[in-house]
Amino acid sequence: MPAAILFVCTANICRSPAAEYLARHRFGEDGALFRSAGFLFDGRESPKELASALDAKHVDVRPHRSAILDADTLGAADLVLTMEARHLQEATVIAPDAFPKMIPLIDAAARVRPGQTIEEFVASIEGRDPMRYLDSRFDVDDPYKRSMRRYRKAVDEIDGLVATTIGALRF
Known about the structure:
This protein has seven helices and four strands; from the N terminus they run βαβααβαβααα. It is an alpha/beta fold and 171 residues long. The longest helix has 21 residues, at 148-168.
Protein backbone atom coordinates (compact mmCIF):
# COMPACT_ATOMS: atom_id res chain seq x y z
CA MET A 1 0.00 0.00 0.00
CA PRO A 2 1.44 3.41 -0.92
CA ALA A 3 2.42 5.84 1.80
CA ALA A 4 0.04 8.73 2.49
CA ILE A 5 1.54 12.22 2.47
CA LEU A 6 -0.68 15.11 3.50
CA PHE A 7 0.05 18.79 2.82
CA VAL A 8 -1.68 21.35 5.05
CA CYS A 9 -2.28 25.09 4.74
CA THR A 10 -4.83 27.61 5.97
CA ALA A 11 -7.69 27.30 3.47
CA ASN A 12 -6.45 24.47 1.21
CA ILE A 13 -6.82 26.60 -1.90
CA CYS A 14 -3.26 27.82 -2.63
CA ARG A 15 -0.14 26.40 -0.99
CA SER A 16 -1.17 22.90 0.05
CA PRO A 17 -2.92 22.06 -3.24
CA ALA A 18 0.11 23.44 -5.09
CA ALA A 19 2.30 21.04 -3.10
CA GLU A 20 -0.12 18.14 -3.62
CA TYR A 21 -0.39 18.61 -7.39
CA LEU A 22 3.32 19.35 -7.85
CA ALA A 23 4.22 16.19 -5.89
CA ARG A 24 1.79 14.08 -7.90
CA HIS A 25 3.13 15.56 -11.16
CA ARG A 26 6.78 15.00 -10.22
CA PHE A 27 6.55 11.62 -8.52
CA GLY A 28 3.31 9.94 -9.59
CA GLU A 29 1.37 7.98 -7.01
CA ASP A 30 2.91 4.52 -7.19
CA GLY A 31 4.95 4.95 -4.00
CA ALA A 32 2.92 7.60 -2.21
CA LEU A 33 -0.53 9.13 -2.33
CA PHE A 34 -0.53 12.92 -2.09
CA ARG A 35 -3.45 14.79 -0.55
CA SER A 36 -4.04 18.20 1.01
CA ALA A 37 -6.40 19.83 3.51
CA GLY A 38 -6.90 23.05 5.42
CA PHE A 39 -8.78 24.65 8.27
CA LEU A 40 -11.35 26.99 6.71
CA PHE A 41 -13.41 25.80 3.77
CA ASP A 42 -14.79 22.74 2.10
CA GLY A 43 -15.35 22.57 -1.66
CA ARG A 44 -13.67 25.80 -2.78
CA GLU A 45 -11.66 26.10 -6.00
CA SER A 46 -8.11 27.35 -6.15
CA PRO A 47 -7.66 30.94 -7.39
CA LYS A 48 -7.14 31.42 -11.12
CA GLU A 49 -3.74 33.01 -10.35
CA LEU A 50 -2.55 29.76 -8.77
CA ALA A 51 -3.81 27.78 -11.76
CA SER A 52 -1.89 30.13 -14.05
CA ALA A 53 1.33 29.85 -12.02
CA LEU A 54 1.06 26.05 -12.03
CA ASP A 55 0.26 25.97 -15.77
CA ALA A 56 3.81 27.20 -16.33
CA LYS A 57 5.00 23.94 -14.71
CA HIS A 58 2.50 21.84 -16.72
CA VAL A 59 0.45 21.14 -13.59
CA ASP A 60 -3.35 21.47 -13.64
CA VAL A 61 -4.82 22.34 -10.24
CA ARG A 62 -8.28 23.16 -11.63
CA PRO A 63 -9.87 19.86 -10.47
CA HIS A 64 -8.96 20.66 -6.85
CA ARG A 65 -11.62 21.43 -4.27
CA SER A 66 -10.67 22.38 -0.73
CA ALA A 67 -11.11 19.90 2.11
CA ILE A 68 -11.36 20.53 5.85
CA LEU A 69 -8.65 18.95 7.99
CA ASP A 70 -9.97 16.52 10.59
CA ALA A 71 -8.62 13.90 12.97
CA ASP A 72 -9.36 11.02 10.57
CA THR A 73 -7.40 12.68 7.76
CA LEU A 74 -4.46 13.33 10.09
CA GLY A 75 -4.64 9.78 11.42
CA ALA A 76 -4.58 8.27 7.92
CA ALA A 77 -1.44 10.18 6.89
CA ASP A 78 2.03 8.71 7.27
CA LEU A 79 3.63 12.16 6.98
CA VAL A 80 2.03 15.61 7.38
CA LEU A 81 3.85 18.56 5.80
CA THR A 82 2.55 22.00 6.79
CA MET A 83 3.05 25.28 4.98
CA GLU A 84 3.45 27.24 8.23
CA ALA A 85 4.54 26.47 11.77
CA ARG A 86 1.14 27.55 13.10
CA HIS A 87 -0.53 24.93 10.88
CA LEU A 88 1.40 22.29 12.78
CA GLN A 89 0.19 23.82 16.06
CA GLU A 90 -3.43 23.97 14.87
CA ALA A 91 -3.33 20.40 13.54
CA THR A 92 -1.92 19.21 16.86
CA VAL A 93 -5.04 20.60 18.56
CA ILE A 94 -7.18 18.47 16.22
CA ALA A 95 -5.08 15.30 16.69
CA PRO A 96 -2.44 15.60 19.45
CA ASP A 97 -1.09 12.10 18.76
CA ALA A 98 -0.21 13.11 15.19
CA PHE A 99 2.52 15.61 16.21
CA PRO A 100 5.39 13.10 15.74
CA LYS A 101 4.59 12.76 12.03
CA MET A 102 3.94 16.48 11.39
CA ILE A 103 6.59 18.96 10.30
CA PRO A 104 6.65 22.22 8.35
CA LEU A 105 7.68 21.58 4.74
CA ILE A 106 10.61 24.02 5.05
CA ASP A 107 11.95 22.14 8.09
CA ALA A 108 11.39 18.77 6.40
CA ALA A 109 13.44 19.86 3.37
CA ALA A 110 16.30 20.84 5.68
CA ARG A 111 16.20 17.61 7.73
CA VAL A 112 15.46 14.83 5.21
CA ARG A 113 18.35 12.61 4.14
CA PRO A 114 18.51 10.90 0.74
CA GLY A 115 17.21 7.35 0.78
CA GLN A 116 15.23 7.60 4.02
CA THR A 117 11.88 5.85 4.15
CA ILE A 118 9.00 7.83 5.61
CA GLU A 119 9.27 5.71 8.74
CA GLU A 120 12.99 6.48 9.07
CA PHE A 121 12.37 10.19 8.46
CA VAL A 122 9.59 10.33 11.07
CA ALA A 123 11.86 8.50 13.54
CA SER A 124 14.63 11.03 12.82
CA ILE A 125 12.40 13.96 13.83
CA GLU A 126 11.12 12.28 16.96
CA GLY A 127 11.70 14.21 20.14
CA ARG A 128 11.60 17.68 18.57
CA ASP A 129 10.71 20.47 20.91
CA PRO A 130 7.27 21.81 19.90
CA MET A 131 8.41 25.26 21.07
CA ARG A 132 10.69 25.28 18.02
CA TYR A 133 7.64 26.10 15.91
CA LEU A 134 6.57 29.34 17.56
CA ASP A 135 7.88 31.71 14.90
CA SER A 136 7.55 32.29 11.18
CA ARG A 137 10.94 31.03 9.98
CA PHE A 138 9.27 27.82 8.76
CA ASP A 139 6.52 29.57 6.77
CA VAL A 140 5.96 29.48 3.03
CA ASP A 141 4.57 32.90 2.15
CA ASP A 142 0.85 32.83 1.32
CA PRO A 143 0.18 34.41 -2.10
CA TYR A 144 -3.61 34.56 -1.69
CA LYS A 145 -5.09 37.80 -3.11
CA ARG A 146 -1.63 39.11 -3.92
CA SER A 147 0.23 39.75 -7.16
CA MET A 148 0.91 37.19 -9.88
CA ARG A 149 4.58 37.57 -9.04
CA ARG A 150 3.82 36.36 -5.48
CA TYR A 151 1.91 33.35 -6.82
CA ARG A 152 4.82 32.42 -9.11
CA LYS A 153 7.30 32.88 -6.27
CA ALA A 154 5.24 30.70 -3.92
CA VAL A 155 4.84 27.98 -6.56
CA ASP A 156 8.59 28.01 -7.27
CA GLU A 157 9.39 27.78 -3.56
CA ILE A 158 6.91 24.97 -2.97
CA ASP A 159 8.14 23.11 -6.05
CA GLY A 160 11.72 23.25 -4.77
CA LEU A 161 10.73 22.13 -1.26
CA VAL A 162 8.60 19.28 -2.62
CA ALA A 163 11.40 18.17 -4.97
CA THR A 164 13.92 18.19 -2.11
CA THR A 165 11.71 16.51 0.50
CA ILE A 166 9.76 13.95 -1.51
CA GLY A 167 12.66 13.40 -3.89
CA ALA A 168 14.89 12.32 -1.02
CA LEU A 169 12.43 9.79 0.40
CA ARG A 170 12.53 6.13 -0.63
CA PHE A 171 9.16 4.49 -1.22
